[in-house]
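Researcher: Can you fold this with NAP in place?
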Amino acid sequence: MLILGGTSEAAALDQHLAEQAPDIRAIISLAGHTVDPRPSNLPVRVGGFGGIEGLRQYLRDENIIAVIDATHPFAAIMPFHAEHACKAEGVPLLAIRRAPWHPVEGDRWENVPDMEAAAEALGHEPRRVFLTIGRLDLPVFADAPQHHYLVRAIEPIGDRLPVPHVEVIQQRGPFSLEGEEALMREKGIEILVSKNSGGDATAAKLVAARRLGLPVIMVERPPKPDVETVAHVHQVLPWLVAEGLFVTERGV
Ligand SMILES: NC(=O)c1ccc[n+]([C@@H]2O[C@H](COP(=O)([O-])OP(=O)(O)OC[C@H]3O[C@@H](n4cnc5c(N)ncnc54)[C@H](OP(=O)(O)O)[C@@H]3O)[C@@H](O)[C@H]2O)c1
């Protein structure tokens, strides 16, 4: 089984399989953006496959009989490659997709379709902005150099945000509500930019923004292929059983 990873879901599936189905031979695939990925029980391969054709070749070479797409909600390309390659090779594909966040009373969100729109939505007046979008999309904000940016990312951002006022915090979640609120107060944050990633690990920033009455620019998710989807890693084993790819100890 091939698990397309790079997410907390892939890490949770790794743990779940180790506990519930250690006989399944699976491999986790990472794009290779993170220099220091989380340790895992399963073997890991790193780097792109070389497009749809490369992935098809990989599925054949490695005798893959099932693919789990556990990529991030903002991975815009890999899910489509998985769909096409699996269809062409006749390999069953299941996607794990976490639910998006939804605003509740007191939230001051502005939903925008993409990162360019997020940079524009910051406006012309200089503001103190908390950017919690990872590091890959940072260059877009170079077009709005008037703002003071506080950037949080797992990896060093290098020269991705060449503007006069940038402070970087290098950290991996989860983050606590108290910590998020204290950070935003201490840094005098006036507005937050977030991807609508969903999940628990990074949701505290949104509660903190609500408590502080801060506006949030929320970037909506990119489109995904229409494939069989579950919301939780615990649904993967039942799917494998239903596909006839896995038999439990009870023979079910
Ligand atoms: N985008 C985010 O906000 C975000 C956040 C957290 C984690 N991640 C993780 O980081 C990885 C890359 O994200 P992205 O937004 O660059 O994805 P993407 O735009 O969907 O994919 C770009 C290319 O990266 C390679 N790739 C992506 N995921 C891969 C995987 N799991 N294993 C092997 N190759 C992979 C593929 O290269 P080839 O065409 O050569 O196969 C793909 O065409 C994903 O695994 C995703 O789960 C992304």
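Model: Folded with NAP in place. Residues 129 and 191 are 5 Å apart (CA to CA).
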